[in-house]
From TrEMBL:
Keywords: Coiled coil. This is DUF2326 domain-containing protein. It comes from the Bacteria. Residues 258-313, 376-479 form a coiled coil. It comes from Paenibacillus lutimineralis.
Amino acid sequence: MSKQLLFIHRVLLDPPIYQEDTTFRHGLNVIWAESTDKGSANSVGKTTLKNLIDYGLGKTEFISEEKYQQIPSLQNRCLVLMFGCYEEKYTLRRMLPKIDHCVVYREWSMEERETDIEFIGDISGYLAWLENKLWNGRNRPSNDLKISFRQVMPLMARDQISGFSALEKSFKSEKKKVTQDRLTFLLGFITQERIKAREEQETATTLVEENKATPKILEKFLSTQEIAEEEIKWKLSSLRGELAEKVSERRAKETNIKKIQETELTRLTEDLIKIRNQYEDIEGNLLITESRIDQYTKAQKEAILEIEELEVLIEARESFKLLNTYNCPHCHKELPKEMINQVLHDCGALNNSEQKEISPDLNAIEERKLVLSFEIEDLMDAVEGLSERLGVLRRNKKEVGTKLINAHNKITEMEKQQQNDLLQMNNSINELENQIDHLVKTESLYKRKEELLKQLRAYRKQKREADAKVKEINESEKEMKITLSSYFHEIVSFLYNNQRKGKLDPETLKPQILHINGDMKDDGAAAITVATIAFDLALLKYSLEFCTSEHLLLLVHDSPAQYEIDLSNIYAKVFDWVIKLEKQEMKNYGEIRFQYIITSLYIPENVKENSHGYIRKKLYGGTDDGKLFGITY
């Protein structure tokens, strides 16, 4: 087996029905449905055989459930597809007609040994396994793009209903971009390197667009500043020198203030403490003096009161003598005889409730009055002296209080002056720092502008390199498309005996067949079918020539619309061209690296007579014997 990407070796059913077991070769493989005098070759099973292959390669169903139920012989049968990936051999087993479960064995064998199982699971898992075997992740070049195996298959295996009408109709509901992506992938244009290059170009373009405006904005802003970029360094140096002087001056001022605080302020504080102590002493003496004046005044009043009482006693004694009565002249209380000469007075006239014994000796009373008079004079003198001292103390208190306030104000004023001096110096320093900060910011903006310009130049360089790389890729792709187009033209010319020319749209690769004279398009039904066949063969040749690892190197064409094509000339030449390609392969590589399977109602004589076995299955109409399953359905 050659290093063909995907090679169909054999397809059959287990258990077998009739003649569905078919083995294929590298190169041309013909499933021929021959008409006989007994009947037409239509509906003999050629498309069914193609569908079996497609079912084995992951198609959802082999035939519809309704048709499956109409064919009892298909019940409980398993498709066996033997195929190769590069040089590895595998055998798939999958039940009919629409079973999700698949088992893949290593090697080509009808035996079902568990030790040979390569894969077992549902159809999605089988397709993922198959994609990995074929492309090893190359069909998923990015997170946003994935080319699945089943997306590629309509370009590799065309059905007879709509497969040849146009490239973009390979999937009935497919968007043109998906079709384009598949073609681009098969041409080898979708690779991680190519996607990365275009992503880098897009990123670089975005970076240039996003960053080109900022330097202009900075340039416009800096043009409004009063200082030029080249003056900033000189100005900064000058301001920083001035700032250093101011800071040094402030430091000296702070040291001087500290020294003043340690000397003058300390002295003032000590004076303040002394004055405060004097003030407190004067206040104490004032309290004592006021207390003594109060006591002396009370004593003086008591002495005067006592003199008044003595005078009352004297007056009472004289009254008793004149009246010769035994009653108290004050309270009229009757007195006993024994108390006439010694009165114990408790009526309140002398001292309220106190009882005092008054001596009837008049001399003693007079002496007592004299003593009290002297005592009153002394008390008055003392009060007068204390009052004078009280006035002095109050004047001293006021003077000391004034000194206290002045001392406190002097300290406060000194501290305030020192704070004002420091505040002025700090304001001057802050102003310098603000100027320096503004210049530093302006300088940083100039630097930032240069950095942004440098970065922008780097982004532009990056973009130029990315553009160049993408341009190189685009040129390469353009050259490859030109080459593919030349192959297409070569095949069209071959099929039409140089009576037509082929052309591919440079962007979409849509194939066109043109009249040899001029560029008038041949839009007949036959030309559309031939254009599709020629395009597939051109893509196959391109993949062989450039050894692309994406094309399966497998083509399956199911019954192209032969009634619309000149069979003996154009259609026969399709076989001739494939045979010619086989010979080129053998000559250049010693092996055939592709496989072309075609189901057909017509084959040229050279294919019929071929001893290499181009005809892999011959079916015919008229009787069930010539049909694939030996039955008509």
